[in-house]
Amino acid sequence: MLSVALVACTAKQPKMEDECLYSPSKTQFAFWSNVAEQMEVRIYNDANGDTSLNDANDVQTVALTKGDNDFWTASVKGDLAGKYYTVRSFQNGEWGLESPGIFAKAVSINGQRAAIIDFAKTNPEGWENDKRPAMPDKTDIVVYETHLRDFTMSPNSGVVNKGKFLALTEEAPLAYLSDLGITHLQILPMFDYGSIDETTLENNRYNWGYDPVNYNVPEGGYSTDPADPACRIREAKQMIQALHQAGIRVVMDVVYNHTYDVMGCALGRVVPQYFYRLNEDGTYANGSGCGNETASDHEMYRKFMVESVCYWAREYHIDGFRFDLMGIHDQETMRQIRAALDEIDPTILTYGEGWAAMAPAYPYEELAMKQWTYKMPRVGAFSDDIRNALIGSPFDHERGFASGNPDGKAALCLGLVGYPEWAGEPMQHVSYITCHDNYCLRDRIEVSASKETEETKIRMNKLAQTAVLVSQGMSFLYGGEELFRTKRGIDNSYQSPDSINIIPWENLEKYADLHDYYRQMIAIRRAHKGFRLGCAEAVQQHVQFIETDNESLIIYTVNNLEGIDEAKTLVVLLNGSAETLTCDLPELTGDCVLLAYDGQANADGLDFAPNDKIDVAPYSATIIAEY
Ligand code: CA
Q1: Lowest-pLDDT range, 346-350, 546-550, 605-609?
Q2: Active site residue 421
Q3: pLDDT at 7
Q4: DSSP structure string for 444-461
Q5: In this structure, is residue 454 part of a structural domain?
Q6: In CATH, what number is assigned to the domain containing residue 403?
Q7: Catalytic residue (one of 17, 353, 443, 452)
Q8: Residue 229 sits in which domain range?
Q9: pLDDT digits (tens, 9 = 90+) for 168-191
Q10: 91 C-alpha vs ligand 1 centroid, how far in Å?
């Protein structure tokens, strides 16, 4: 009796992702609406075109029946592969606008209609053997952020399929990323977004893509044929498969916090208002600064988000999610996402921006804001604290510690240990100085220290990134900084042309020294577990700051590392001043290897004569490993 009762209690709610389930003999439809009085699916032969109900050859209208849990369903006999559909609902005396549904998994060009396809045919060869690259330790993470166009549109990229998913199946970019030593590639939005017209791709327009249309379909503009609904799906999978084969995990940038617009998107059309937060006067709240904000606190939008990330993790083998304006979502939703992903694979990464563009229409203490990161275990948040301490705040043009302003020293020390008051564990503290937002590093240093020589600016660049890579937080790098990229002073390049956004591969030769420094610092981090102890308790136990009377100097050791790191002590000295500083070293009795000194780094060690004093050159780091 007990078991029967349990089954009854846990009867499963239908899945939102099952809006359209295809088989060669029938296709089943199921859409959720708690307000519709009638709902119908309209099946088309064409991707776009005449939608007149009078044209019986072009459209078949199927009434949906309301069942349990406000899901409306129908089953249509026959093989519908190759056809398209929309859904619409009747309420308050009128039919609403058609849409592809909120969980369309394949769509027509520009995402106007959903497509019925056989998903088994979208898998590239060998997909069944595709595996996430090994990640033996939860701290084995160095994220590299890029946009598909930034990374491959340059004439010097060595890529044939420039700006496409297939670009990242080609040898040159994969070899570059493997050689750099990063573990995770974070790709700017690759779901179907609205700002690029997929019918005029020859115009080569650029957009970051933070304007979601269909959350569960890859963007058509990155495929070689956006008019073929299966093409973008197959090519996105090919990209992920190739990155996995190169040993690199893939992080998706997800933007569940707002949609391109309200009435142009399925969320606004299928169930008007429900998926969004409203102001008291009935207008749409706007915590995103983009005209609307979604309502993760509403049960069915929360369910949608949870199912959507799990769908990408299962169907596309995505290895991590970066949540745009995560502070708009509520903490409970983020915890449920974490729990659902854990059931698929606990090594799937989750982190996001712990802030909003404007105040969301929801109680602050319930939101997934940075301040409450500790309430969402294993969900990370970007640390604007370490960013501002190192290079200055994006809201002014002041220098930071790495460019000669010691004011940030105390905040930087907290960032180095990765457990400021808000992060429960150091890996929840995403250590970074730049990302696609705001100035890139070269431009940031330029606006705050324009009169310095290029040699000095490169020193500042290396020093700032060194602090990121030795921080106990999770490392995050913006792609192209290692090649001294510039966006020519543009601090919001979301729709700037390729000429501003592309990574300049020709710099690989000119700035080979900078590139090599990044590569070596990544190797040093990955070789030394002491720089990524993984929990706050271990950090407290092993990291010790040494008092200095110079505000521009930080010295600390990571000590007693027997059984943790091959080195028994790591010594880090960071000099944010224009002077060479001669420092007393802590007593080191073992064999010492110099890992970084005067703007050079080598994971195997630089030439070094151990002494009880050491010089730290202007704007540079000295790192010593004692064995
Ligand atoms: Ca699109």
Answers
A1: 605-609
A2: no
A3: 44
A4: HHHHHSTTS-HHHHHHHH
A5: yes
A6: 3.20.20.80
A7: 353
A8: 141-512
A9: 999 999 999 999 999 999 999 999
A10: 29
